From TrEMBL:
Coiled coil: none
GO molecular function annotations of the record: serine-type endopeptidase inhibitor activity
Descriptive protein name: Serpin family F member 1
Keywords: Glycoprotein, Secreted, Signal
Superkingdom of the source species: Eukaryota
Signal sequence segment: 1-19
């Protein structure tokens, strides 16, 4: 069980899990058993099949993020792991048992007992890509030229994932043009056309694409947006457009173990962004990253308290285009690239040769309304609270309804695109 978030309200500081209490009580603590130890029960949230599946593939997403971040310690990271997970999950439909088990372990399917994972996945995709969510996410399996694919695999792929595989024609220019056209159609033109050359000797290319532009529940006043300092570290500062709200309603907590301030801002469509802001600009983010799991994020969602704060947040527009092949090879999926068994797809030996990811993500002042929910009363604070995202931070975009990790980012420099 991950450590619970420390909460601050009416001057009280609550210890992890309520075990240390210096000024308040945590009413939701588990009842002790006869040994005096807390009894852990499964969160009812995860008993819903679609939520349980969402937790599994989100944990895959946090794993993928950690590997990507460790490979790029000095650079921004932007990922929509859902699109990559979807491509892998769809590919597992064509795998024989040994290879299927390899994929399912990486996606944490071996820890859940959902009778038909793929039908549940269809339900999950429909939920998180509903128009009000503002998320566009799509995946595609691309095969080597002129490969004969079994019709049973194509039918299963269409039934649960709503997509058809693409077989290359062997002309690099035309193949790239067709892939770009598909991406443009899926993302409604929000993702730039790739100018990268088609890789040589493709056997299986997995492609995951995603785009998100969120709308805050409460919009920012653009007249209050101004250039302000963003501290890259203790010595280097850059000026970036910073949005501000002197009376922002947000959900907040302080985690002393991770030495970071956590805030959650609601977006329209039952989505929210959780920010992890270290206490110091030079603090290593690794400890925060290692804590990220579906269960920990659900704990945060349950434990944070609504407060009023002075908020500043940089305008952000990020994009990513590249491979996540090496990252997946680091995640116990190397056998997919060596000698997998995709006998349910074709009679010819094939293997994964490349996994590509394209993503776009932005937020600005746009929002649904000018006032916070009048029915929500913030907790009383005995001190003014400031929350300034003016130094490196991590953010998690999450679907509130299912708990799905939609996007995750490490922002070391908000100017980078």
């Amino acid at each position: 069980m991950q450590a619970l978030v420390l909460l601050l309200w009416t001057g009280a500081l609550l210890g992890h899990g309520g075990s240390q209490n210096t000024g308040g009580s945590l009413e939701d603590s588990p009842a002790p058993d006869t040994t005096g130890l807390p009894v852990e029960e499964e969160d009812p949230f995860f008993k819903v099949p679609v939520n349980k599946l969402a937790a599994a593939i989100s944990n895959f997403g946090y794993d993928l993020y950690r590997v990507r971040s460790s490979m790029s310690p000095a650079a921004n990271v932007l990922l929509s792991p859902l699109s990559v997970a979807t491509a892998l999950s769809a590919l597992s439909l064509g795998a024989e048992q040994r290879t299927e088990s390899t994929i399912h372990r990486a996606l944490y399917y071996d820890l859940i007992s959902i009778a038909d994972i793929h039908d549940t996945y269809k339900e999950l995709l429909a939920a998180v890509t509903a128009p009000e969510k503002n998320l566009k996410s799509a995946s595609r399996i691309i095969f080597e030229k002129k490969l004969r694919i079994k019709s049973t695999f194509v039918a299963l792929l269409e039934k649960s994932y709503g997509t058809r595989p693409k077989v290359l024609i062997g002309n690099p220019r035309l193949d790239l043009q067709e892939i770009n056209n598909w991406v443009q159609a899926q993302m409604k033109g929000k993702i730039a056309r790739s100018t990268r050359e088609m890789p040589n000797e493709i056997s299986i290319l997995l492609l995951g694409v995603a785009y998100f532009k969120g709308q805050w529940v409460t919009k920012f006043d653009s007249r209050k947006t101004s250039l302000a300092d963003f501290h890259l570290d203790e010595e280097r500062t850059v000026r970036v457009p910073m949005m501000s709200d002197p009376k922002a309603m947000l959900r907040y907590g302080l985690d002393s173990d991770l030495n970071c301030k956590i805030a959650q801002l609601p977006l329209t469509g039952s989505t929210s962004i959780i920010f992890f802001l270290p206490q110091k600009a030079t603090q290593n983010l690794t400890m925060i990253e290692e804590s990220l799991t579906s269960e920990f994020i659900q704990d945060i969602d349950r434990e944070l308290k609504t407060v009023q704060a002075v908020l500043t947040i940089p305008k952000l527009k990020l994009s990513y285009e590249g491979e996540v092949t090496k990252s997946l090879q680091e995640m116990k999926l190397q056998s997919l690239f060596d000698s997998p068994d995709f006998g349910k797809i074709t009679g010819k030996p094939i293997k994964v040769t490349q996994v590509e990811h394209r993503a776009g993500f932005e937020w600005n002042e746009d929002g649904a309304g000018t006032n916070s929910n009048p029915g929500v009363q913030p907790a009383r604070l005995t001190f003014p609270l400031d929350y300034h995202l003016n130094q490196p931070f991590i953010f998690v975009l999450r679907d509130t309804d299912t708990g799905t990790l939609l996007f995750i980012g490490k922002i070391l420099d908000p100017r980078s695109t």
